[in-house]
Amino acid sequence: MASTVAPSLFDPLAWRPSSDGAPALSRSEMLRYLGYSGQELDQDLQQRIEDAAAAVVADARICGTRRVFPVDASALDEQGEPCIALEGTCVRLRGRDIFRHLKDARYAALICCTLGMQTERRLRAMGAGDALDAALYDAACSAYAEDAVEILDADTREAGLANGLNANWRFSCGYGDCPLDAQPAILAALNAQRLCGITATPTNLLLPSKSITCVIGLFEGPVHDAQTRPTCSICRLRPSCAFRARGTTCYQKASAH
């Protein structure tokens, strides 16, 4: 994992890694996105996997940003229900799951990360070509976006500890009952369009599509659930989840790179 990429947890971070500071693309994570479960891979397929991974690394223009805000757990949403407000922003995070995640936090770190528009353009162009190559490239993009945001996640934890703060796991809109409609406010709070070129569509999906936003709680004192990961029981996509159908989960990292 990369070393600290920002001088201070409380300084706004705009991160564009150099070529030697970019993450390695996890082949095992790429295979997990493809539904690999130990099948034998012939030489031709292995080469196509390597070609797709190399193309994504060449195309990606990784960019990320992070800001840390005080948490207000006394806020109410439009229906009078408790929600999480981030002070100094228009961000209001609704839902029981995100409320439990952040209600005792002193601060919240908002993070976004993207692979950029070049991968987006390649994804769209490949949609009209070979279906396997398109699937391999898409899986490589998904894995690489996760690899990139992991660096910012780890840096946030390291910087938090340097400030006497403990972090829980990163939570994204769409987990549990936290709706996607917070995405525009999150992007605005991060100035993500100017810094990273990330916008939200009218249906609150991110563009470029291989982009991630998330929030990490930072606590003064122990965090009892710091190592607790998200569970399928809180996910609205549980009935139709392709990962569950394959006996795994979207948050279960591959064991090796």
Concise structural overview:
With 257 residues, the protein is α+β, with helices and mostly antiparallel strands. The protein is built from eight helices and nine strands.
Features:
257 residues, alpha+beta, two-stranded antiparallel sheet, 8 helices
The coarse overall form would be: globular
Instruction: Report the average pLDDT across residues.
Output: 88
Largest sheet data: 7 strands, antiparallel
Rg measurement, Å: 18 Å
Q: SSE string, helix = H, strand = E?
A: EHHEEEHEHHEHHEEEH
Extended strand count: 9
Spatial gap, N to C terminus: 12 Å
Strand content: 15-25%
Individual helix count: 8
Uncertain segments of ≥5 residues (pLDDT<50)?
none
Helix/strand/pairing category:
alpha+beta
What percent of the residues sit in helical stretches (DSSP H or I)?
25-40%
Question: What does the model show?
Answer:
The chain is α+β, with helices and mostly antiparallel strands and 257 residues long. It contains eight helices and nine strands. The strands form two sheets. Strands 1, 2, 3, 4, 5, 6 and 9 form a seven-stranded antiparallel beta sheet that branches. Strands 7-8 form a two-stranded antiparallel ribbon. A hairpin with a 5-residue loop joins β7 and β8. α1 crosses α5 and α2 crosses α5. The longest helix has 32 residues. It is globular. The protein starts with 12 loop residues before the first strand and ends in a 12-residue tail after the last helix. The relative contact order is 0.19.
Break the fold down into its secondary structure elements and pairings.
Elements: E1 13-15, H1 27-33, H2 43-59, E2 63-76, E3 82-86, E4 92-93, H3 96-102, E5 107-114, H4 117-126, H5 131-162, E6 165-167, H6 183-190, H7 192-196, E7 199-200, E8 206-207, E9 211-220, H8 242-245
Antiparallel strand pairs: 1-2, 2-3, 2-5, 3-4, 5-9, 6-9, 7-8
Helix pairs in contact: 1-5, 2-5
